[in-house]
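Milestone M4 deliverable, item 7.
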Amino acid sequence: MKTQYHFQIRKNGNHSAWDLIKAHKRCLPDWQTAVCLAKRAARCYHAEIRLTEGRDPSRANGHYFRSSEA
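Output delivered:
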């Protein structure tokens, strides 16, 4: 069964609130795949990625990945 994950991408140096950043929805098979994708996107886009699980990304707690940590 696939779970719905939301990825929000904020470029380094941008300090906008997460509520103002569009969430990209992906259905993935497991959490490890979502984390791997978030880390790869952070490296590729030189950005901070907020990863949330569930239907509403603005109400869920997020996990954050930065390009320097990925």
